[in-house]
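Comment on the following before class.
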Amino acid sequence: MSGAPLAITLGDPAGIGPEIVAAAWAALRHTGRSFFAVGDAATLAATGCEVRRIATAADAPAAFADALPVLDLPLAAPVTPGQPTPAAAPQVIAWIERAVALALAGEAGGVVTAPIAKATLYEAGFAYPGHTEFVGALTAATAMRGTRGPVMMLTARDLRVALVTVHAPISQVPGLLTQAKIVAAGQVVAEALARDFGVTRPRLVVAGLNPHAGEGGTIGDEETRIVAPAVAALRAAGIDARGPLPADSLFHDAARQTYDAALCLYHDQALIPVKMLDFWGGVNLTLGLPIVRTSPDHGTAFDIAGKGLARPDSLIAALRLAAEIAERRAALVAA
C-alpha cells in the first residue's frame, strides 16, 4: 500500500500496548502499509522488539522491514508492566497529541491508538471520557466535509455498530437521548459508510432503548417520543433508515444481512454483539473526523501485561482497517 505511514500510539505503557505494538510490527513488517510508533522507544525495546528511532514520520517506510520505527517521546521514568502510574499520564497524552498532529499535517496516513487506562489519566487531570472524545477535541478546529463527529463505531466480521451515547451510566442514558443526537449520529454513520467503506447506498437500522422497542409505548415511551421521530428525520434527509427495532433481534446472522450499520443507543447494546461475534478481531473506529482513527476493541489488560500472553489480533485488524480507509480517502481526493 502507498501513502503516508500510519502512526500508532502505545497507550498505557504499563499495559499490553507495547507488547501488541511490537507483535503487530512482527506480523506486518513485510506486508501492508508501514507504520511507526509514537511513544517510549526503551519500553518497546524491552519487549524484545528491534526498534529504530526516527526523526520524522517520513523516515518510517525505509526502516519498517528491518525494525519498528519509533518517534521517541521518552517517559520521565520507566514503568513496570501491570503497575499503572499517573506519573506516565502526561506522556501518554503527549503521544496521542503528537500522532493526531502528524495526521492533521498529512505526515501520517491515520492514527491507531493502543488502549489507555482512563482512571489513571483522570488522576492526572485528563478531562475527556476517552480516546474518542479527546481525538474529537484535538481535530475540532480543522475543517472537513460532511457531518462532524466524533461517533464511535465498532466492527467485527460483517457487523458494524455505532453509538449515540458512549461511556454513560445506564441510569443516565434515557435523559441523554435526543432526536437531534440520533439524527446527527445517523448522518455521520451514513456518510462514513459511503466515504470510508465504499457502501453506495448505506442502510441503517436504529435500535430501541426498551425491551421489544417499547411495545408501542407500553414498556417505555422513548421509542415513540424520541427514536421514531429521529428515524423519520433521517429518512426525510434521504437516508435509508429503519427503526426503532428490538435490539435482541438485530444481530443474528440473517438480520445482519439486512443493513450496513446498526445505530445503538448505549454502550453495551453495541459492544456485546461485537465481542460475541469476534472477541479477538473487533476494531473501534471514530467517525466524523478529518483524520482516520482506529484502535483495538479491548483494554489495557494489566493482569497479563509483561507475561507474553497478549494477542495482537485486534490491533492488527485496526491497522489494516486504518490502511484501507486511508486508501479510500486518498482515492476520493485523487478523483
Notes: The chain has twelve helices and twelve strands. The chain has a mean pLDDT of 96. The two ends are 18 Å apart (CA to CA). The first helix runs from residue 17 to 28.
